[in-house]
Amino acid sequence: MRFLFASIAFILLVASCTKKSNPKSVLTNNKQKFWDISTVPGYCYEFSSDGICRYYVWMNRNGKPVRELFDFGDVVYPNTWEFVNDTTINIQGFNYFYKIVNTDSVKLVNVKRPSDTFYLMPSPNQ
Questions:
Q1: Coil, strand, or helix at residue 68?
Q2: Residue 48: which of 14, 24, 75 has the closest Cα?
Q3: Which terminal Cβ of the chain has fewer Cβ within 10 Å, N or C?
Q4: What's the average model confidence in pLDDT over 24-41?
Q5: For residues 81 and 53, is the Cβ–Cβ distance under 8 A?
Q6: d(CA 70, CA 17)
Q7: Range(s) of the domain holding residue 30
Q8: Closest CA to 87 of 55, 61, 111, 66
Q9: For position 20, what pLDDT does the model report?
Q10: Quick one: 26 exposed, middle or buried, by C-beta within 10 A (0-12, 13-18, 19+)?
Q11: Is 59 inside a domain boundary?
Q12: Residue 15 domain-assigned?
């Protein structure tokens, strides 16, 4: 009987340790979520649960910081994001390998340029 309880406890422990966060809910908080970009201070992405992705920059308006959509000029990027597979995410037309480090950190590595690596961290200004 003790062996049975020990076995059940072990299985529950292993199951709880291997439980992974749903990547979509981490990125979107099941609605939308802003993520600051580690290598580009003052810029962030907004991921919505409906697949919309926007790129923002912080601007100073009348002495107050304001998040505004980034103007890419003549260059047109899709305002979308999606998971390509279990290891790849497409953000505004670019493919990245992703790793959810935890709910406060996502590592992105550009598929075509691995030296283009950065982390996303939840913006304190949601």
A1: strand
A2: 24
A3: N
A4: 89
A5: yes
A6: 40
A7: 21-122
A8: 111
A9: 56
A10: buried
A11: yes
A12: no
For the cut 50, the answer to whether the pLDDT of residue 79 exceeds it is yes
Q: Is 54 among the domain residues?
A: yes
* pLDDT, tens digit, 9 for 90 and up, residues 103-123: 899 999 999 999 999 999 999
Report how far apart the first and last C-alpha atoms of the chain are (Å, whole number): 51
Residue 35: is its pLDDT beyond 80? yes
Half-sphere exposure of 3 (CA within 13 A, CB side): 0
Which residues have C-beta within 8 Å of that of residue 65, sequence separation ≥ 6?
A: 58, 59
Residue 14 pLDDT greater than 80, yes or no: no
Q: Residue 110 corresponds to which tokens in the numbers above?
A: 């550009």
pTM of the prediction?
0.78
Residue 101 backbone dihedrals phi, psi, to 5 degrees: -70, -50
SS3 at position 116: coil
Domain of 52: which CATH number? 2.40.128
